[in-house]
Amino acid sequence: MNKILYASVMLALLASCASSYNVTGSSSVTALDGSKLYLKALKSGTVKNIDSCEVVHGEFHFAGLLDSIRMANLFMDDESIMPVVLEEGEITVKIGPAGPSVGGTPLNDSLYKFIDKHNQLINQMNELGHKQNQMILEGIDEQTIAEQLNVEAAQISAAEDELVTKFIEANFDNVLGPGVFMMITSQYRYPILTPQIEYIMSKATKAFKNDPFVKEYYQMAQENEQRMNGLSDPVTPVADTIQASAPLMNVPKK
């Protein structure tokens, strides 16, 4: 009896020491109503379900114990909607036609300030297409148009690289650094080394380099670099876990 009581007390103490996450969400996207949402995160090289719930009248809720702060993705079925940092505190998720946002806790606030700035640059890049059409209607020479827009595109691309690089550098030692690194590398069909990635790794802390995803990606990218130079076998395809990472923005707008 004493052993049972002791075990119960120990379990209660352990539970009281563990932190917890609480995600309260609202959606004005009608396509989500009645849908099943999932929180998924990368663990031991595999994307695993952490929690699930249903959207009821535009509201949804996740809650649970947390052994450590982690980067997760919110999914609808197999579609990744948005990244969410699971950390202690009241996390608020809002999904609307203009896009999703997460706030209420320090790391989520920081992540979505970065995402907002990143989206502004993406919108600027997209606007170049409209600008090109307008310049054509104004009768501007095609070569002049191309030269001007190429300069503007290069400036936006450089600003995007700087934004991403500085954000990862500032968050080497928390989950945001590896998490955003996973997002930017998900655009590649297989792990490759770019000047940006090489620079990030040259500045990276030990904690960042030892992150399981970062470590595996960088090792595979180095191996693929050798293969592309004809020093080894054909290129290794990108890992499924990379493809499972959330893009910076991808929300149903029906």
Can you walk me through this structure?
The chain is α+β, with helices and mostly antiparallel strands. It is built from eight helices and eight strands; from the N terminus they run H-E-E-E-E-E-E-E-E-H-H-H-H-H-H-H. Strands 4-1-7-8 form a four-stranded mixed sheet. A hairpin with a 2-residue loop joins strand 2 and strand 3 (46-54). It is globular, with a radius of gyration of 22 Å.
Please give a handful of descriptors for the protein shown.
8 helices, single chain, 8 strands, alpha+beta, four-stranded mixed beta sheet, four-stranded antiparallel beta sheet, 254 residues
Structural class: alpha+beta
Mean pLDDT: 85
Radius of gyration: 22 Å
Largest sheet: 4 strands, mixed
Element-level helix/strand string = HEEEEEEEEHHHHHHH
Count of alpha and pi helical runs: 8
User: Could you estimate the helical fraction of the residues in percent?
Assistant: 40-55%
Q: Strands, helices and their partners?
A:
Blueprint: H1 2-17, E1 19-27, E2 36-43, E3 46-54, E4 59-66, E5 70-76, E6 79-86, E7 89-96, E8 99-103, H2 106-137, H3 142-170, H4 176-185, H5 195-203, H6 206-209, H7 212-228, H8 240-243
Parallel strand pairs: 1-7
Antiparallel strand pairs: 1-4, 2-3, 2-5, 5-6, 7-8
In brief:
The radius of gyration is 22 Å and the shape is globular. The longest helix is centred in the middle third of the chain and has 32 residues, at 106-137. It has 254 residues and is an alpha+beta fold.
